[in-house]
Write a structure and sequence with these properties.
alpha/beta; Alpha/beta knot; Trp Operon Repressor, Chain A; 5-stranded parallel sheet; two-stranded antiparallel ribbon; 9 helices; elongated; binds adenine
Length: 240
């Protein structure tokens, strides 16, 4: 997959693209990332990228020309691509969306800034607007990183064990069960007995129940009774 990030602040992405699993994926060529400076597509001596809003109001608006021209210059027609604008008014980002986006050959992530982006950018070059949550960031850069991480985990070879993606919180529709590693006892807190005996059915059952319990407690909105077994439902009934 090729990810093309369009931003006014390319430096923000340096550490992000060099470290940890994203860094490794880039190094191994599993993920190609270009960070494009929108200012490079602005015209005039001062390469101005923003202007005051028509109709008045506070703040500045990102001008349409540099953004549209940056997208057009970097959109690879031969690749199946999707252009995404990161904005708090977008569709709420989710695990299924991350999986869907991972099927594209090119992802163009446009990071908004200031008080907004000229609406004609959306009309001319944006396929989808995404928000990462109901709060306002100073720009789309951190949101773009969130999307890159969530999508990259679905690309073959990026996360060592594909099962670990399948077992994530949300992939199963439930929050993830609690995890423990050595030591068996730490400051008086013991690892649950069910995990220590090597009995895989017992371990699976314990994990399923903990996932159900946590989800019921913290995110009851995620629970879809039609996707649960009769044993799951029985367990949940005991906790209502
Ligand atoms: N830009 C500013 N806030 C944002 C949000 N919540 N999601 C995506 N992009 C944003």
């Amino acid at each position: 997959m090729r990810v093309t990030i369009l931003t006014l602040f390319p430096q923000i992405f340096r550490g992000f693209l060099e470290e940890s699993l994203i860094g490794k994926a880039v190094e191994q060529g599993l993920l190609k990332v270009d960070v494009v400076d929108i200012r490079g597509y602005a015209s005039g001596k001062h390469r101005v990228t923003d202007d005051t809003p028509f109709g008045g109001g506070v703040g500045m608006v990102l001008k349409p020309e540099p953004v549209v021209e940056a997208v057009e210059a970097h959109r690879l027609e031969k690749l199946k691509g999707r252009a995404v604008l990161l904005t708090p008014r977008g569709e709420l980002f989710s695990q299924p969306m991350a999986r869907e986006l991972s099927a594209f050959q090119q992802l163009l992530l446009i990071c908004g800034r200031y008080e907004g982006v000229d609406e004609r950018v959306t009309k001319l070059v944006v396929d989808q607007e995404i928000s990462i949550g109901d709060y306002v960031l100073m720009g789309g850069e951190v949101a773009a990183m969130v999307v890159v991480e969530a999508v990259a985990r679905y690309l073959p070879g990026v996360v060592g064990d594909p099962d670990s993606v399948a077992e994530d919180s949300f992939s199963s529709g439930l929050l993830k069960y609690p995890q423990y590693t050595r030591p068996r006892e730490y400051r008086g807190l013991e690892v649950p007995e069910a995990l220590l005996e090597g009995d895989h059915r017992k371990i699976e059952r314990w994990r399923r129940r903990e996932a159900l319990r946590l989800t019921l407690e913290r995110r009851p909105d995620l629970i879809r009774p039609d996707r649960l077994s009769s044993e799951d439902l029985e367990f949940l009934k005991g906790h209502l």
